[in-house]
Every structure is written in C-alpha cells, then in structure tokens.
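As a warm-up, study this chain.
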Amino acid sequence: MRDSLVAAAIRLFLERGYEQTTIDDIVALAGVGRRSFFRYFPSKEDVVFPDHEQCLEDMTAFLQASEDEDDPVLRVCDAARLVLRMYAENPTFSVQRYRLTKKVPGLRTYELSVVRSYERTLADYLRGRFADRHDGALRANVVAAAVVAAHNHALRTWLRADGEGDATAEMDRALDYVAATWTPTPSAAGAAAEEDDVVIVITRRRTPMWRVVRDVEAGLGRD
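Now compare it with the structure written out below.
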C-alpha cells in the first residue's frame, strides 16, 4: 500500500503538477482511503521522500557501530555511501523525484531539510570522535559539510544523466577527495602528535615541582 501511494503520487505530480494534485487525488488513484495515506505519510511532501527516514536511521546505526580504531573521516564517507545506495536501488524513481524537486520550490526546501539532517548526524558523530582536539567542533562541522557536498556533487551528476552511468565510481572519486584532504598520512599524523606533545618550560633549579607541573599544564592548555 505504501509503495502504491508513492507511485500514484509521483505519477500525478508529474502529469498534473504538484500544486494541482491533492491527497484525495492520490488515494483515489491508489485505490485506498485518506486514513491509509496518513498512516504512512504526515503530509504530501513526505510522500516524495518516503525512504529518507529509514536511510537516516541506517546511517545513525552505522555510525554508532563504529569501533575506536576506525578512521572517523573514512567512516562518515562510508555512511554517505548508504544514501547513494538508496538512490541507486531505484534509479527511475530517483530521477523522477529529482525532476520534480527542481520544479517545486516547496519540495526543494523540504529536500534541503533532509540533507541538513544527514549533515547534522555526521557532524554529531565526528564531534564525539574529535572531542580531544581543541578544534574538534570546527573540524567536525567542516568535514561533515565536505562529505555532504561531495555526495551531492556525485549524486546530482548521476541524476542529471538520467541515472545512467556508474554512480558508485563518481561517488568514490568525490569522497576520496574529501578523505585525502582530511585524513592525515601516517607521517603527518606522527608529526602532528609529536608537535602537540612537546612543551618546553624554562624554570629555576629550585622551583617547586607543583609550580613546574602547573607551568607544563598551562603550556598544554589545561589551565
């Protein structure tokens, strides 16, 4: 029934126009009642994006299952691939939705809110992983935005080509660019760690140890 409602809605939106189609029109074509529609979708906008809520749940679960040894940037890149897989599983519907959202400002606004939910989920995960960095929140927000931008670039390239071509390859190219930018090489990571861990304190020979410790902590930014 849910799939029938989605199919009926998209067909009518494309044939008649989004604003000209009512919920009554949708349920009539699908052969169900209004109560059945609202059992699955809170609004007419939601029927255009029926799969995003589940995808967001899958992404959240994927990030929560991350191990400590997982690279956080690579993890959020893989999380973004889950969204692409959702689109690629039904290219015809994905292309139809893309064409529809281009025409209807209200749907574009709704889509932006959906994308923002994905970005917020990625950033929340990264903030937890970067919590020990002084720039953790900034890095988390920037990396999350970069991953979403790379994903959107690859996805829209594929959709503009009517769902033809290898969407995965384009996505990998875009996300590899993000990973190369934000994932340090082993040598760079070692150098950064070494730089962060070295503090030079000049003190008199007879300075009490508690004061030396205090100066070291101040140099580490722990005062």
